[in-house]
Description:
Layout: H1 3-24, H2 31-45, H3 53-84, H4 87-97, H5 104-116, H6 121-143, H7 149-167, H8 172-181, H9 185-211, H10 221-228, H11 232-242, H12 246-251, E1 273-279, E2 284-289, H13 295-318, H14 323-331, H15 334-352, H16 357-390, H17 393-404, H18 408-423, H19 426-437, H20 446-460, H21 469-477, H22 482-508
Antiparallel strand pairs: 1-2
Helix pairs in contact: 1-2, 1-17, 2-16, 3-8, 3-15, 3-16, 4-5, 4-13, 5-6, 5-7, 5-9, 6-7, 6-11, 7-9, 7-20, 7-22, 8-19, 8-20, 9-13, 9-20, 9-22, 13-14, 13-15, 16-19, 18-19, 18-20, 18-22, 19-20, 20-22, 21-22
Amino acid sequence: MDSRTIYLLCVLAAAIVLLIFLINWRTKMHPFLALYITAFLTALAAGEPVADIPQTLMDGSGHILGNTGVLVFLGAMLGKLLADSGAVSNIADFVLEHSSPRMAPWIITLVAFILGIPMFFEVGLVVLMPVIYAVAIRLEVLHNRPQQWYLRTLIPAIAALCCLHGMVPPHPGPIIGVNALGADMGLTIVLGLICAIPTVILAGPIYANIIAPRIKLEPPDSLLTQYAGVTYEQAEEVYKRTGSFAELATDHGANPDAFGAPKDAPTQRPGAWSQTSATADSGLASVTKKSGVSTPLAITCVLLPVVLMLIEAITKIVAPNSHFQTLAGVVGQPVIAMLIGVLFTGAVVAIQEKWNGDRLRESVTKSLAAVATVVMIIAGGGAFSQALKDSDIGDAIVHATSALHINLILLGWFVGLLLSFCTGSATVGIVSATGILAPLVTGYSAPYVSLIIIAIGSGSVGLNWVNHSGFWFVKECFGMTIAQATKTHMVVQTIVSVLGLIFTFLLSLLFV
């Protein structure tokens, strides 16, 4: 390597260190500001003319916001409509009512997997929280195995939600990678799901079966009452006296299959529950009874955008250059597919739940505030990526790595893991890693590029510890100690990360 290449690589290393320092320093700078400052100084240190730097930052932010920001907002709208209308709860109720106690962790895994397609990690977990608590406390009483069933039902939910959040579009991280690396969206979804299914099975119910008996978790009565509507002692007393939960369920305004409803809950449709408001920082949420969108329509609303994108990808293969391919190419574009999904869901909710325009707008408006920070971080990541590109650092990376023959799957995973762990933001890890790898993917096949994106996303969910808001969210929602949250939440997400790398690498052997 020549001296210029070595210098630019040193600038890149310094930029990563600076980014980590700014986010974790005493000031705890917001990642958006840290990314913008780092991008400016990186471009300056790399020799880009000062007068050109502002345009570089604006171009990077504007490009990624136009491609990714709109999708993030549409995804938030879809998730909020599904949660507020009770559609999500109906999916959970339907599946759980058709399961046996031994299958409960697997059913929770399936429900979380379905919910994880359109929903962010925190949103999906908030929605599932009443179901997790209600099912766990019932199984605690039935099987006389205190402190096991909470984790047996929680861990599968964490594994499914974090896996899909990091590895499968239409989540922000994978979408960032798709746009930054020019990958095929439909192909990335298919390969992401192929990697996600065995990953979730191993990191979810199987790991839960191993670790749950080794951790004594006792959520406080305040959390049990908040999420399940009853304490363990109350549930146990009623079951010992009557041999069932029917009396307790009736006392709490629900039917026997909807165990755990608050006493003063409305009764439009017993058994339909959803989280209507929550904050990831406090881990608190209010539980409201919902009449709910019917289960078939609820599932349709969740899967419609993904199906449209998959049809577009399949049509490219089986019917290229046809009129149907043209139509599929339009409706299968991520922005259009998500827009159709939001409009369809809004229409379903308006008809079945008789929501007026004001109620629909209120739900959609609240959804935007929840993801504003994510979108701003994405914009900052776009600026950083553009700075790397315009300052020839990308070319230096290509020159350096071409001689070392570093596997791009492993490189993408490691950079995503390192930056996510050090900055406390999976999004920062993804946007930074895709910016570094963007100049390296030229000439690789479309499936291989998609697998690089999945590997980066897998890396970004690993080592989710005390500097991540999700860690504290899970800890507080289940009354865990830091040690318990580390053995469960952090370890589960790290297992997901490592397994994601393994399955991605194995698939990549077919497409090198």
